[in-house]
Structure prediction request, 676 residues.
Amino acid sequence: MKAAIAEAMKKANADPAVKAIVFTGAGKFFMAGADIPNLRKLASASTGADVMRKGLQEGHDLMDVVESGPKPTVAAVNGPALGGGLELAMACNARVGTKTSIYGLPELKLGIIPGMGGTQRLPRLIGVAGAVKAMLSGKPMPAKLAAKAGLVDQLVKKSKDLLPTACKVALAMAAGQLPRRKALEEKSRIGSKARGEEAIELARVKSKRKAKGTPHAAACLDAIKVGLFEGGRKGLDAEMDAFAPLISSPSAKSLIHMFLATRQCPKVPGLEGIKPRKIQTVAVLGGGTMGAGIVALMLFKGYNVILKEINEKALYVGVERVTNIISAVLKRRKLPSIAMEMGMRNLTPTTTYEGFDKCDLVVEAIVENIGIKQKVFADLEKVCKPSCILATNTSTIDIDIIGEKTNARDRIVGLHFFSPAHVMPLLEIIRTTSTSKQVVADSIGYAKRLGKTPVTVGNCVGFTANRIFFPYGQAAAFLVENGVCPYRIDRVLKSLVHMPMGVHEMVDLSGVDIGVHTTGIIAKAYGDRCYIPTMGRYLMEAKRLGQKTGVGYYVYQGRRGVPDAKGLAPFLQKARQGKPTIKVTDQEIVEMVMYPVVNESCRVLAEGHVIRDSDIDVVSITGYGFPAHKGGIMFWAKAQGIDKVCQRLAHYSKTYPSVSKFFAPCDYLQNLARKA
Ligand SMILES: NC(=O)c1ccc[n+]([C@@H]2O[C@H](COP(=O)([O-])OP(=O)(O)OC[C@H]3O[C@@H](n4cnc5c(N)ncnc54)[C@H](O)[C@@H]3O)[C@@H](O)[C@H]2O)c1
Prediction:
């Protein structure tokens, strides 16, 4: 692409008939930036940094010609201008955009930084604080915001006016009627050095907390700072120096892997050519924790939603939950409260099945009880139209069992949202052997419209996400009941693995009672290799259920948990009775808690419940918060050395005979280790 643009520029600049140059995109995009599969190749190649440096130099040279060549240039931005696309637009002497155009530098999401002058031109167009925020978040700016910020000079009302307007601006520049602005030389918007430095250092502190030892945010901020103090040219050199080594950093490799893995997820073999049907009217059964989040999300996305509860009181509470979620989101996004009325207008609360005959999809999110769910699905078959998709949000129950009392198994599917449903990106789509291909395709389409990452998985207890992570909680429980402090385990997982919260903080969040209930179901299915803890039961008996009762492993003031060593001591003593006290290092904690997750992931792979290895990585990141900059649980395991993971599990299996089956590496993992 760079070479093609350079060639076209050369021709245009040499042609006396050409007065000015206008860039636009051929399709829906202006330009979407880097070739990411190629970046992956570079990230893994030993010469990656050198090849990158050469490419960056060519990019800078090209941007120089665009910005300061013999003829004025204008970007006619007809759609997304992302990464290198926005860098090209910023090098142009003016930008004209449509109302639907968007502008972003998402490079940091890939563990790299903008490499064609983005770190220098954006601060000069919109100011340091705005530029730092845009680059560190990687979020694209919509047209109106970009125009307000100064990134776009003019917005056209109708797409058909884009090119004529851009040409007019370009010709006016060529005729000297309009100044030819060069972003790299702009001084009016960058602001004072002191204020710029303040914005950079503030962002550095925030990003250190978030980026957990990854180098790209600091590299980006350093390059911006050089530009601020030493000028744009020096800043470009700093940008190039910082970018080239980043490409082979472990975090860039991991984030690029994660990006490509996520892009693969919606591609399910066998569904080629099947178009998702339109889903517009959806009923949700149950307005509890999950149902309310699902309803709120759908209202945001413009669906007509029916919410059914068991009685008026529960319905009132359910609607209140939905209202609270929506108002919190509106407040956070600084949107007017009128949006609430508009959203709620599309909600129909009910205690009956009225209106279900019009639904394209029903999502059941009621209590986790097989008998009740079976009865509800039998009812749904009677009241819904024959094409309606019947989905369950169960977290553990076999989907076939839920549909056992119906003749509608071809349209029954699991749509497993994660809590909070309006926030967590993963939507596990569980297909049984009876679920039709059309229903799977519809579910993927629905997930995409909700902005979720759809991962299609097979039907087994715990499905994929909860199944691969059940050993996580059980291993921690084994350590705790054998003398290791739960708060130490949480600290180690956060500081060494970079999990967003410790395992006991997670248990407190979802509920100690839920954990005990789920362990029962998991133990029934995978009992031979489970560790069944007693601690949870003792806490449950004392109503220490976690955040919902204000105390669990931690004591809560609002959502903030504080360790409660004294309060926990009698429960620990009871749970540890008759068990040996073991001594472990921090590294051993990491291995004993995380490697069993790798082992169970291997079992899921061996049983064919996921389409590809990388789906497991996506599930671990989007469902359980495993850090994206480590690429997902299997990617991380491979980086650790699969043979090492296997050996260490075998070691723990031998060292702790009471849990020897829990730690024993499965055949699939042993095979991987042999091949490694
Ligand atoms: N809480 C989680 O973290 C989580 C995560 C993923 C999946 N799930 C699953 O989602 C489902 C709901 O979980 P939850 O945490 O929202 O439960 P919850 O107890 O908060 O809410 C359940 C709601 O369903 C209502 N209900 C019960 N029977 C009903 C019926 N016949 N018709 C309509 N409403 C009925 C109840 O009144 C209650 O308001 C369960 O299957 C659970 O396993 C939960």
The domain at 2-248 is CATH 3.90.226.10 (2-enoyl-CoA Hydratase; Chain A, domain 1). The chain has three domains: 2-248, 281-457, 465-609+641-675.
